[in-house]
Amino acid sequence: MASDSKKSELNRDxxxxxxxELRQLINHHNSLYHQYDSxxxxxxDYDKLFDRLLLxxxxxxxxxxxDSPSQRVGxxxxxxxxxxxxxxxxxxxxxxxxxxxxxxxxxxxLKRLDSEEVPRYSCEPKxxxxxxxxxYEHGLLVRGATRGDGVTGEDITHNVKTIRxxxxxxxxxKKHPVPDRLEVRGEIVMTRSGxxxxxxxxxxxxxxxxxxxxxxxxxxxxxxxxxxxAAERPLHFFCYSAHVSAGAxxxxxxxxxxxxxxxxxxxxxxxxxxxxxxxxxxxVVTGYQACLDYANELLGKRDALDYEIDGAVIKVxxxxxxxxxxxxxxxxxxxxxxKFPAEEAxxxxxxxxxxxxxxxTITPVARLEPVFVGGVTVSNATLHNMDEIARLGLxxxxxxxxxxxxxxxxxxxxxxEMTAPADTEALPGKSDQLERREVVMPSNCPxxxxxxxxxxxxxxxxxxGLVCPAQRKESLRHFCSRAAMDIEGxxxxxxxxxxxxxxxxxVADVFTLSKEQLLSLERMGDKSADxxxxxxxxxxxxxxxxxxxxxxxxxxxxxxxLALATHFGSLExxxxxxxxxxxxxxxxxxxxxxxxxxxxxxxxxxxxxxxxRERGVTWPEHESQTVSDELAGQTWVLTGTxxxxxxxxxxxxxxxxGAKVSGSVSKxxxxxxxxxxxxxxxxxxxxxxxxxxxxxxxxxMLGEQAG
Length: 707
Description:
5-stranded mixed sheet; Helix Hairpins; alpha+beta; D-amino Acid Aminotransferase, Chain A, domain 1; 25 helices; 6 domains; 36% helix; CATH 2.40.50.140; single chain; 5-stranded antiparallel sheet
């Protein structure tokens, strides 16, 4: 209960008005989420609204109404589905978001039990799917139902029976026979890989429906009236609990429950013996600190799992203690959900700016109200091109859903339609204060004012070439990068200074820089200037593959640069090659061949190459390596950080020797190269018994093959 001083800070009338708006708004979003599988806001925003409701009701308990969302679990089922009553209510879980909340959870348990003995906890992933109830009578599956409002759900038996890992009959066990009536609880998910394949297939069909995320796809599938649709979709079930029951609405039959295991973890093992699928990532630990360690370890595995999770579920393992702790109106006191940083959050598009890349491509970038998502604060997101903006229906001032899973680049996945006056009150940013404006591609380059022209169906380009300072900066950054000329110390800020001071106009000008010129730059000291000049001098001796990559030819990455060097042997032969000759190179198609030919036909590029030679840059002819009998046909996987080679360079060298390089580990993988920070791929290799080597062993092997 809040203190009187805190309560006095709030105005009761205003609180009553806000509570009414919050209840209406939360009920609206509950309906969209539970009934129609088309949520308008991400879970993180819903949690903010709900937390605000709970806070106000805690301060003013006299304002709590019987129909408040805080007194309910979900929402009413659709009329088009038969309604069923759960044998025991399907309760929700209270949520915590940080270490201190977890410590407080344990403190409340110890206080309520009047004990100092730290309990054991059963821990498992909080799977982001659809909660369901499965009813078995005499071992046979007779009903499947959604959570609904926690007491009454929707009958989805026809769809549940199509999910392949849900047993239609349980395996009997002589020592622990299956009860006559067993209500099983669990989560139905759509696998990530299956979701991606399903969306890809749908997007290739005119009018095909794609889903925003696997959870929506799973929920939408379960509410299909035609079970053939569910049968075709990649759904999977995880069991997380069960109740021996006396009948609908009658709760747990204590007499039938006499032989039930004394702990939650043992009950799961028994359910597994009966054939119900369990989550393999579960664990039993003692104390909240061990729970936190489990949650952090699970968070590290999150991106490697083929199903989405949004936290860890932590339950007191001892069932007697669970019963002693009991429940409140909507949540058990013996369990809670430790939430991970949200992978989706809503924010406001404050503006859209246009960035110019090294080849002149103009890319729209959304400037966002800063929002915490996926463990970091995000304020920018690329919009890729104007077609993507049109697909989203995006305008400046819109509230959008931003997704950042793992380490991927943040992406705007949806424009939100705000439907109630209170929608924006508890959310980041103030979209209602911004005038909504269309996003328009500028007719002139924002960096040099040169005309912008459309290149193909999607891209727009600045026509300024090296006159454009933005293109010069990006070209120079690329040229000096580790995988290209590898000029140590020539980073992003220094590149900006060199271009803005007009000391560098083309990449070849790097090799004319003097100490006097460098010392004229802000915050450049004597030692730093000497170190940079040494690095520039060292970079003069390079290789043909590195040079080709450094020149920034459109579509030519490290692997293609190596393939070109291997095929032609010298820069002169490559420069004279026709498009027909270029397409003979592995992985070079007609479009890339045209880009390469156009690059070398350009007089400015010829002059840059000539200037590089004149300023002492050398690259010997490339001696191609013969395909290795040992590596030919093998499949290699690279994981973690490589310290000597770049990932692309290692991949290119392995491919040149005849090996295939894959992005995932399987039984067909021959060797895994693991550097610092190797994660789930290394674990999978160890599990499958795949050979694992480090970078030094890779370099030694490449040296032997070269010899």
